[in-house]
Design a protein that fits this description.
This protein is globular. The chain starts with a strand and ends in a 6-residue tail after the last strand. Helix 1 (13-23) packs across helix 2 (27-35) and helix 4 (64-77) crosses helix 8 (198-212). It folds into 3 domains: 58-327, inorganic pyrophosphatase (n-terminal core) (Alpha-Beta Complex), CATH 3.90.1640.30; 366-474, Diaminopimelate Epimerase, Chain A, domain 1, CATH 3.10.310.30; 478-590, Beta Barrel (OB fold (Dihydrolipoamide Acetyltransferase, E2P)). The strands form 5 sheets. It has a 5-stranded parallel β-sheet, sandwiched between helices. A 5-stranded mixed β-sheet has the order 9-10-11-13-12, sandwiched between helices. Strand 2 (81-85), helix 5 and strand 3 form a beta-alpha-beta unit. Helix content is 40%, strand content 19%.
């Protein structure tokens, strides 16, 4: 699929020059900072040296005082508390965080509840409310869900069961009648940062509880591993508070992982080192313990290695297994649960592949779908646990807003995924009269509807999408930070660039463009259509760099003839036989004359 290359606007030259001089870094690195809105020495210091002291006061969040009062009253009266969360990574990490915190306060009247994806569906369910009532829970703390659970909370109130909602999804005009509704996206909430994950909102709750109980903030550091996994897996912006939480969460996982994370990482060949390693000097100048694994873990590892395995429990069996894993303090117990969850992940991958093939066939054999601006595919027997993943796969093949639907409990239910700049939540909202339920974000949503409304929904959704799309939106875009020459890259350059991490939405790993490069003649196709190259300039003196270009073997014949070509790429570190080197990870290749 042909991709558009879009070069970002250059920063203010005076600001770039000033920052370059103040920080003692080259203009390319200074330009990257200015593009990220970092214009002063002080802003750069905060960016490169995130500090937990810069986290916001949790009581700035609307209803936080009410939530804290109610939890403290429950603790004082020894009331039963149910920690309730969604079955995905964000929900299960949030439940693990709040449950463990309350358990460590010594509260024994405590349990957690994860709804069944198939019998209950997303979020707070009537079955969950009935469970709380029948088991004499006085308080339910709902995490990563509940912002639209108006009828469920009403039912809980009739039972005399109080609710605290901790959510980060978009609310409707009417909020549930809960004791407290913590959601920075509430229109009446003045909390300075609006993009916390569900687990992040849970962290703000325990931060507020700790403050009220005069407990040291340092006691909360051990929960940041849960927060970073939620931030990475829920794809929230890694800016503001999320950047701080993610930075320290990654350090914790690398240096002192909880048994659950260490056990699950073993199944991705991330294993604990056996030899002693000297302490490393952290960016703040202090010595920290070294990474305990065979390599340093990044946000990408949380997204692609940890997150899918935690998610697999809720997709295939029960998300409760994920919570059991994450709250376990016994390595042998965590190892046993991790093995089971890894088996679930293997099953999930098989279902994913089979369903994706069926969905692609459904598109190819349907002339209407081939010509449509949106993709909506349905099969009553598709596994509900993988349809969100399949929707993402279909976007890779047919770049357009996509919904994959199956049947569950008499309803057609599905997952939606979107493309850059198209708000799929708003598009689904325009079809809400045909739906029983929907919720989500700009780029991902869930929905359910009656079978008799399916055709009408498909037709209306296509109309809404067609009206909202522009031609540019339908071409995948590679956003390029800067155009540079290879001779501008070196060890010191990469050392500073590495400190731009953690990378993610809002602070993506920089993409560079270099024109007129050639391979040294020893390039080859490896694996499944990947290119392994050694890149240098065609007409400019520069040191050669090893490079990998995934799924781009179709360019090999041109490259192998020694002809120049253009690349856009990330700069990364490759480690082989304990030797580290700079490597180019090529995102796209264009031959001379091809439109960029």
């Amino acid at each position: 699929m042909q991709k558009r290359w879009v070069l970002k606007e250059r920063g203010n030259p005076e600001k770039v020059a000033g920052l370059s001089a103040e920080l003692g870094i080259g203009p390319v690195l200074a330009e990257l900072l200015v593009q990220r809105g970092i214009n002063t020495f002080e802003e750069a210091k905060q960016f490169f040296r995130p500090s937990l002291e810069d986290l916001h006061d949790p009581f700035l969040m609307k209803d936080m005082d009410k939530a804290v009062d109610r939890v403290l009253a429950a603790l004082e009266k020894n009331e039963k508390i149910l920690v309730y969360g969604d079955y995905d990574v964000d929900g299960t990490t949030a439940v693990s965080l709040v449950y463990t915190f309350l358990r460590e306060l010594g509260h024994a009247q405590l349990d957690y509840y994860i709804p069944d994806r198939y019998s209950e569906g997303y979020g707070v369910s009537f079955k969950g409310v009935d469970f709380a009532h029948e088991n004499d829970f006085a308080l339910v703390i709902a995490l990563d869900c509940g912002i639209k659970a108006i009828e469920k909370v009403k039912k809980a109130n009739e039972y005399g069961v109080d609710f605290i909602i901790c959510d980060h999804h978009r609310p409707d005009e009417m909020l549930p009648d809960a004791v407290a509704v913590l959601d920075a996206k509430r229109p009446d909430c003045n909390y300075p940062f609006k993009e916390l994950s569900g687990c992040g909102v849970g962290f703000k709750l325990i931060q507020a509880l700790s403050s009220r109980k005069n407990l040291p903030f340092e006691n909360l550091h051990k929960y940041l591993d849960l927060v970073v996994v939620s931030i990475a897996s829920d794809i929230v912006p890694i800016t503001g508070e999320n950047r701080i939480l993610a930075y320290y969460g990654l350090r914790l996982i690398n240096q002192n992982p909880r048994p659950g994370f260490e056990s699950i990482l073993k199944y991705s060949n991330i294993i604990r080192k056996t030899e002693d390693v000297p302490a490393i000097t952290a960016p703040n100048g202090n010595e920290d313990p070294p990474c305990v694994f065979n390599r340093e873990l990044t946000i990408s590892d949380m997204v692609f290695l940890v997150g899918p395995r935690i998610n697999a429990a809720g997709r295939i069996e029960s998300g409760r297994n994920s919570v059991r894993l994450l709250v376990s303090e016994i390595p042998d117990e965590a190892e046993e649960i991790a093995k089971q969850i890894n088996d679930f992940n293997t099953t999930r991958r098989d279902l994913d592949a089979t369903t994706t093939d069926m969905a692609l066939d459904a598109i190819k054999t349907n002339p209407r779908l081939m010509k449509a601006c949106s993709t909506v595919v349905y099969h009553p027997e598709w596994h509900k646990g993988v349809i969100g993943i399949v929707a993402s796969r279909l976007i890779e093949a047919y770049y357009r807003p996509t919904i994959v639907l199956t049947q569950s409990n008499g309803l057609v239910t599905g997952s939606a995924r979107s493309i850059k700049d198209f708000d799929i939540y708003d598009a689904i909202d325009e079809c809400s009269e045909l739906l029983e339920h929907f919720g989500g974000h700009k780029y991902a949503a869930g929905l359910s509807l009656k079978p008799e409304n399916l055709e009408a929904f498909i037709e209306k959704f296509e109309t809404v999408v067609k009206r909202g799309l522009t031609e540019d939106m339908l071409s995948p875009e590679v956003e390029i930070d800067l155009k540079i020459n290879l001779n501008e890259i070196g060890p010191r350059f990469y050392k500073v660039l590495k400190q731009f991490a953690p990378f993610g939405p809002g602070n993506m790993s920089p993409v560079f463009r270099t024109d007129g490069v050639i391979d040294n003649g020893y390039g080859r196709i490896v694996g499944k259509n990947h290119l392994k190259l050694t890149i240098g300039h065609h007409e400019i003196a520069s040191a050669p760099f090893p490079a990998i270009a995934f799924q781009q073997g179709e360019h090999f014949n041109h490259i192998n003839q020694g002809k120049p070509f253009n690349i856009c790429y990330h700069i990364e570190e490759n480690e082989w036989n304990n030797q580290k080197s700079i490597q180019l990870n090529i995102k796209d290749i264009k031959l001379p004359g091809e439109e960029v």
